[in-house]
Amino acid sequence: MTDNSRSTNLKLGIIFMIISTLGFSFMQIFVKLTSGKFTLMQQVFMRNFVMLIICTVYILIKGSSFFGNKRNRKLLCMRSAFGYAGTIFNFYAINNMVVADAGILQRTSPIFVVLIACFIFKEKFTLERFLTLTFSFIGAIFVVRPQFDSRLFPSIVAMTSALSASIAYMCVSRIGKTERTETIIFIFSLFSTVCSFPFIFKDFVMPDLKIFIYLILIGVASSVGQFGLTISYQYANASDVSIFNYLGIVFVVILGKLILNESVSIYSLIGIILIFSMSLMSYLSNTRENNEKKSLK
């Protein structure tokens, strides 16, 4: 791969990661709008069932493979299993502890991604990357302002969710361009839909039209998030783009203000500035590295 191609792929990876975080941020808003009206597993089912329909239609139009290359199926299954587990753990944590606590613990996933990428997959680890991750995490704390007064077990579950999601992201990164985006998401959504189906009939309540639309939008927004995430990790190393996942906190704060009329404090603004600064620093650092490599040739 040429330096120009690598630089272009990094930019595309960052763009799709930002699109992904925006999609998942809308998903969180719609989940909150349906909170208390459906069980956890009913929300999880609708999220994945809508994604499954979207992916199926897309694959039929594009003529892609539903189950991918045989050599990738182990990683595809791992991505599906850990991704589904991460979703369940995340929802459990949100329902059993202070939401702010669960949010900040879930946002440790970029740190896990970098550690897994560096120590298992031997991607380059630098002090600069460590510092940008650390200050992004501090920015997230300013935004969320967790109380950390929740019970220990749900807190451990929230951390496990972040770890599970990180392993799923790394599986996508390892598959790279050898598998189509829609195939990766189809297998994940099929796996999650099948696993969730047996639990949807407990305490089932027929939704009204407004809530039903919100449920569908959970799946639509999640599809945007999954497509963006998968494409991002196919274009760039996980350790290069995972930091931009922190922008999701910024998006949620803004959307919460606009849609749910939630207040934005001075602490949130400080956190937003920190997160944006670290994301920008990470991008400039990667751009500088690519330019230095190019000048040496």
Automatic annotation (TrEMBL):
<comment type="similarity">
    <text>Belongs to the EamA transporter family.</text>
</comment>
<feature type="transmembrane region" description="Helical">
    <location>
        <begin position="81"/>
        <end position="98"/>
    </location>
</feature>
<feature type="transmembrane region" description="Helical">
    <location>
        <begin position="243"/>
        <end position="260"/>
    </location>
</feature>
<dbReference type="InterPro" id="IPR000620">
    <property type="entry name" value="EamA_dom"/>
</dbReference>
<feature type="transmembrane region" description="Helical">
    <location>
        <begin position="104"/>
        <end position="121"/>
    </location>
</feature>
<dbReference type="InterPro" id="IPR037185">
    <property type="entry name" value="EmrE-like"/>
</dbReference>
<keyword id="KW-0472">Membrane</keyword>
<dbReference type="Pfam" id="PF00892">
    <property type="entry name" value="EamA"/>
</dbReference>
<feature type="transmembrane region" description="Helical">
    <location>
        <begin position="152"/>
        <end position="172"/>
    </location>
</feature>
<feature type="domain" description="EamA">
    <location>
        <begin position="156"/>
        <end position="279"/>
    </location>
</feature>
<feature type="transmembrane region" description="Helical">
    <location>
        <begin position="130"/>
        <end position="146"/>
    </location>
</feature>
<feature type="transmembrane region" description="Helical">
    <location>
        <begin position="211"/>
        <end position="231"/>
    </location>
</feature>
<keyword id="KW-1133">Transmembrane helix</keyword>
<keyword id="KW-0812">Transmembrane</keyword>
<feature type="transmembrane region" description="Helical">
    <location>
        <begin position="12"/>
        <end position="31"/>
    </location>
</feature>
<feature type="transmembrane region" description="Helical">
    <location>
        <begin position="266"/>
        <end position="284"/>
    </location>
</feature>
<protein>
    <submittedName>
        <fullName>DMT family transporter</fullName>
    </submittedName>
</protein>
<feature type="transmembrane region" description="Helical">
    <location>
        <begin position="43"/>
        <end position="61"/>
    </location>
</feature>
<feature type="domain" description="EamA">
    <location>
        <begin position="12"/>
        <end position="144"/>
    </location>
</feature>
<feature type="transmembrane region" description="Helical">
    <location>
        <begin position="184"/>
        <end position="205"/>
    </location>
</feature>
